[in-house]
Amino acid sequence: MKKLTALLLISALSVGTLVGCGSSDAAKPAEGAQTASTEGEGASAEATTFDEIKANGYITFATEGTYAPYSYHDEDDKLVGFDVEVAQAVAEKLGVEARFTETQWDGIIAGLDAKKYDAIANQVSITEERQQKYLFSEPYTYAYGAVVVKGDNDSISSFEDLDGKDVALTVTSNWAEVAESYGGTIVSTSGFSESIQLVIQGRADATVNDNVTFLDFKANQPDADVKIVATSDEATESAILIRQGDDDLQAAINDALKELRDDGTLKSISEKYFGEDITSPN
């Protein structure tokens, strides 16, 4: 599965492109930032982000607000979603309130550089490139590449079985590259919704996507006659993104996530939105 692992890494990188990191001007303290002084010999030290969070009584997370089921507005226009609830649970463990800044993906990381918020909770995939510039919490989402077929299809049970089969996918997607690498013939579609319909209608043998996308589909259409028959060995991991240097905040968030994992909160939130636990590796 080394070939698939490499391709999945390319897919993770394509989810969102890092926009230009802030210049030296972006490192200015956020409005209202507080500083802490230490006694003795007149020495002073600037308060950390986590110090300010505790002093202010809230932590601010950036999220899109248009990315269901992770971050979106319900029929009452309330911000809800998997990432929103995870962030709220983390904040509660930190003993502070969770506040949210909604922003488009294209500028979300630049906003972190500019200190417009304290962290990002928006399915940010962990990549080597990002790890060179930012801190990540421990992962709280694990997504695996998945082969999806019609309920009565017994001829496909692995990625290798895609050889010679019609696979419904957007031709420019990285999933199409994955399917073609296993010998699949691409049936062009405009996206996952159309791809899954072609499989249901019998006009394609399979489609390939991440298992979380499929679980979200099944949560909304539980009677759809499709199933996952194979998943990749390696996962794309997503975590809370934090500025470089905020090590104490990273440690506190990691402690919070561990408690939420241990007490079953993460699993409960995941099952609410996906019907399964996507917060632990397979």
Keywords:
alpha/beta; 7-stranded mixed sheet; two-stranded antiparallel sheet; 10 helices; 13 strands; elongated
Judged by helices, strands and strand pairing, the structural class is: alpha/beta
- If you compute it from the alpha carbons, what radius of gyration comes out, rounded to the nearest whole angstrom? 21 Å
Q: Major β-sheet, in short?
A: 7 strands, mixed
Oligomer status: single chain
Total number of beta strands: 13
Global morphology: elongated
Strand content of the residues, in percent?
15-25%
Low-confidence stretches: 9-44
Global mean pLDDT: 88
Q: Which helices and strands occur, and which strands form pairs?
A:
Layout (H helix, E strand, L loop, with lengths): L1 H13 L21 E2 L6 E2 L3 H8 L1 E6 L8 E2 L5 E2 L1 H13 L2 E6 L2 H9 L5 E7 L2 H4 L2 E3 L4 E10 L15 E4 L4 H8 L3 E4 L3 H9 L6 E4 H10 L5 E18 L3 H16 L2 H10 L8
Parallel strand pairs: 3-6, 3-7, 10-11
Antiparallel strand pairs: 1-2, 4-5, 7-13, 8-13, 9-12, 9-13
Helix pairs in contact: 1-6, 3-9, 3-10
